């Protein structure tokens, strides 16, 4: 405690709006099972509330768990709070995100992603180790937060239930920056709403003229962002700039361009405010190294204007102090279910008007600010929806439905959702789970499904790993699964000469792995780097990201641990007659038979899942130059621009998927709609079988084709 007082004496946290309400906030948590807390971004909810609860003795019986939809936020905030509480990160204060657990026995304030909490609920539905669960950033409406919210409501909905299966009651605090709190409170037994009074200063917003409804090319808006940022830097008074862009590559190219342009600014003549003497450009995105992220929060040196070029992460998850100017691209990178290809894909879409207001608001925290929108009024009116659609209504629910089923929630349609997903999304999820043999025709979780839910991976990939384990060749699949779980393995330099060199190195790695197989190339990269004496130097030589590889090594170890734990249970044993390359691809087919494509006319392929989508090989695939020789292929992911591209693929033999492909058409959505509602009776089962026998033709093939 004395350490805390030392921090408090610094006075910083006392200046946050939440400090004024400290005593009543603690009391409100004491008085209720559920509590909704609303307060502007930056008011101190995420960093302070858990500390208040800690000081008030809430950790006597159990831990305080705080969820974040984004992993970077969980890590950064935990670091900050550990500093404030003057303890080593991982001791009293820690974090857990997928594949990275920085907690210990003594951790009592634990920041984690909502996905991690969902996994904990799976292992211990009453969360017996926790005294308080704080669901943070609920307004973001991430899929996992929505599901956890439903589960907490279901399990702890009245005072008697709050202690069910536990020795002391659980407290649930739900925090939001913007969302309709009435709706949240109504959802949680009409619980109290605690508002943190905040003061916002006015922000003047202006629209640009360059970006209209047709200007969706990234090069166009990146150029406009750079131009506007430089204009603001030279013509506006001192104050930091926050730029909202879409993703890592756009942010990096914008920063490069900005850096070049900023070098030619003559500070004697070009800048309006003579106290401004330089520009400090800082990129900020999720997969950035943590030490670089720290810089974002530090005040710039005197006379220097800080300019942070960020993804949406800076909209509400993390607050940067000192921002006076916002430059808004109007776009965001979002995971959406694409019915044309029948998969979830990351795509760049216009933000909602509501989101645009949030972004603008970042400029008005400590004084009046300005927001420069690079898009025009027409774009605002015709392209931007009023509100962002919650993730649960726009992404594939396969993994979540499996988790719910494993938790004994059979009726996945009548589960208490804050906003119901469309029934067809639930049915799609059930269809895929059935195709993967994770559930049976009656909607019950199978043995394989129980194993699958243990892995924090895409279910298809898990299925491939489990297949490999049955064949005793998990050493081939685990590294591939790990490599597919980390982003950006290959470096793609902007400079054309260097790009040529990188391409050659990457091609050599592909050849080394037998060629023509992107998955095998990933395995080769993993193994070659791991067996090298100087792995980081090996990466540099081969134009491979060392940080991503390091993470892949750790992910592989963790997947291996999960497998070891499961292998103690009975595990089927199978055999396969073929060489190593065939073995790898055969195992992959077990999980990727939903992503099979066959060469169509010319150089394009056609998917086999009933959508019959025309796809092209992405230029970044090492197979893109050898299209002519390929016939049947499986692929890992899809990118949609003006065309549909597949990336990370390998050729297969038709015989390997011949028996699996019919499964894609075997079950129809009408059957599943009953399965979704409840466990199915024998009588109904017989009815289906009869109906099915009457209709030979598959019905689901074109369900999604629009
Ligand atoms: O959660 P909420 O948006 O209400 O506020 P918060 O994240 O707790 O932020 C409170 C203050 O801590 C803000 O002034 C942030 O800028 C600051 N903070 C920081 O300096 N470094 C971090 N890693 C996180 C927060
Ligand atoms: Mg927060």
UniProtKB/TrEMBL annotation:
Occurrences of domain Helicase ATP-binding (ranges):
26-197
InterPro entries xref list: DEAD-box_helicase_OB_fold, DEAD/DEAH_box_helicase_dom, DNA/RNA_helicase_DEAH_CS, HA2_WH, Helicase-assoc_dom, Helicase_ATP-bd, Helicase_C-like, P-loop_NTPase
**Which residue spans traverse the membrane?**
none
Q: Which UniProt keywords apply?
A: ATP-binding, Helicase, Hydrolase, mRNA processing, Nucleotide-binding
Concerning Gene3D superfamilies, the annotation shows:
1.20.120.1080, P-loop containing nucleotide triphosphate hydrolases
Its signal peptide is none
Superkingdom of this protein's organism: Eukaryota
Instruction: Please list the GO biological process terms of this entry.
Output: mRNA processing
Q: Which reaction does it catalyse?
A: ATP + H2O = ADP + phosphate + H(+)
Name of the molecule in the record: RNA helicase
Q: Which organism is it from?
A: Mola mola (Ocean sunfish)
